[in-house]
Amino acid sequence: MQAKPSGATAAGEAGASPRRPAPSSASRGRAAKKASRTEDVLSRFHEEAQLGEAYDARMLLRLWPFVRPQGKHLALSLSLLIVTALLALLRPLIMRDALDAFDAPGGLDRLTRNGFLLTGVMLAEQSLAFPQLYLMQLAGARAMADLRARVFGFLHTRRLGFFDRTPVGRLVTRVTNDVDAIGEMFASGALNAFGDLLRLAVIIVVMVSLDWRMSLLAFAAVPPVALGVNWTRRRIRDAFREVRAKTARMNAYLNEQVSGMAVVQAYAREERSAEEFDEINAAYRNANNRSIVLDATLDAAIEMVSSVCIAAVLWYAGVKSFKEEISFGTLFAFVAYIDMFFVPIRDLSARYTLLQSAMAGAERIFELLDNKDEDATATASCTDAAKAADEGVAFELDNVVFGYKPGAPVLRQVSIAARSGEKVALVGATGAGKSTVASLLLRLYDVEDGTVRVFGRDVRAYARDELRRKFAVVPQDVFLFPGTVLTNIAAGDAIPDRAKVVNALNRIGALDLFERREGGLDAPVLERGSNFSAGERQLIAFARALYRDPPLLILDEATANVDSDTEARLQRALEGAMEGRTALIIAHRLSTIRAVDRIVVFHKGCVVEQGTHEDLLAAGGVYSKLYRLQFARQAAAHA
């Protein structure tokens, strides 16, 4: 559901006034542009497909594995809940006996005895309420911690294509807001509905035993309440679904804007971003308003029915008192029970609202957990013994066809093979498919046709961790985790090996650079490494690759963010680091790949040339043209 443009008014929706002038063509044009912009914003943060019919029982059954480890706490809490509910039902009976004692012989003693009994019951009830609520919330908090950990761990098992099409804010909403909505079911005592149902059953029995005719007046209110709850049920679930969807969309937009704040400010895009956010914020507000209206309507209706019911009972008692005497204590107890009868109904309606919110959150979480797009699962049928005989081949792409979107291939019949210890460089224009080759070797994506092999085995026959332990990757855009220089270089190790970190930094000639910083290797790394320069982040990435010491090394524009002096130092260090291992180097700067064993030239997703630097220059093909063009630009820049 999309929000209306903010320019829309109630009058505009209902029909314009005859005296109101027609909008000018310029106004219509601005409105059309704004509507188009709104459409574009909302489409970028599209809602998930409408979820199917979900039943609370089914959602609760799927939540049970997370709640079951806390079963003892939950069972004890529900037991205490039953006891407190029964104690609360004793109070009107004690009050009735105390009020009837005024006119009875020995009334003072009965009044005193009932006073102490009532005090004891209320003290016991309140004393048990604390552990009951504490145990309920403890069970809920622990269960939600397990669920949150499950969702977080689950995200690590999805393939990269899943994250390409899913906004980050939406995933953050699943782990935070949606799990919190389920946790609120425990924190707010929504599960105390079991005690409410028990209380209702006992109240019905007691009221019928006191006076069945007056009980019928009270019970006459049940059908309209039931109809109201049934009318509200589906609508309030839909309202909370919409709230959850709008929350996810808002989080996604905020994530985009904060991550791209430098671009927003550089292009003076603040005003347009504010307008787009207003549209999303208005949609979120309207969704919340709808849920609030439904909740308030149900609560007010129950309150009104309760008041009418009590008035009817009092009228009936007044009429009946002319014919036969009704004790004041009985009337007091009956009115108290009527009030108590509607208290759990009111509580049930409020808890029902919370339950619907929780079920909407659970629905969205389990929709995520039902995703089958698992990352790099090993497939036994992909074991290719016949073609795995040549163990000297480190990696191979055999007639590979791949596209990120159906019908738009990025690689077309690509065949590349690198022998163990060989240094292979991939060059070509932007978008030619070079980085895609690295992604396929790591099996971040699966090929549409053809085969990718590492050390003679189809990558689909490897377990995910086994395959990726054979690689170290130095990307162009380095991602650093909050922590220290030491923990970032030793990424993946629970306990970093300081000696290995020092050795890795020594091999690239960067140890002195980091030891000069305050804190040395224990210097803090802020979010995304914002307190380090681009060159320093690149050096940490090189050291991270050498620390891992795998047989295969992938360098994806690894020297793009370092200056010329640092690049020269890294080139010398990498020559030694790559000795004895296979390396795949993806480069735009052709000066960095002259010494490789073989250069593979890509053009529009196809391999068009292969050979050494000298051979390709002599051939006068695509590589020669790229080389002459790049160095002509460099010469012009230095002129």
Automatic annotation (TrEMBL):
The keyword Protein biosynthesis does not apply. SUPFAM superfamilies: ABC transporter transmembrane region (SSF90123), P-loop containing nucleoside triphosphate hydrolases (SSF52540). It is found in: Cell membrane. It comes from the Bacteria. Residues 395-629 form the ABC transporter domain. CDD domains: ABC_6TM_TmrA_like (cd18544). SMART domains: AAA (SM00382). The chain crosses the membrane at residues 74-94, 292-314, 326-345. One of its GO terms (molecular function) is ATP hydrolysis activity. Keywords: ATP-binding, Cell membrane, Membrane, Nucleotide-binding, Transmembrane, Transmembrane helix, Transport. InterPro entries: AAA+_ATPase, ABC1_TM_dom, ABC1_TM_sf, ABC_transporter-like_ATP-bd, ABC_transporter-like_CS, P-loop_NTPase, Type_1_exporter. The keyword Lipid biosynthesis does not apply. One of its GO terms (cellular component) is plasma membrane. Residues 7-29 have a biased composition (Low complexity). Residues 1-39 are annotated as: Disordered. This is Carbohydrate ABC transporter. It comes from Sorangium cellulosum So0157-2.
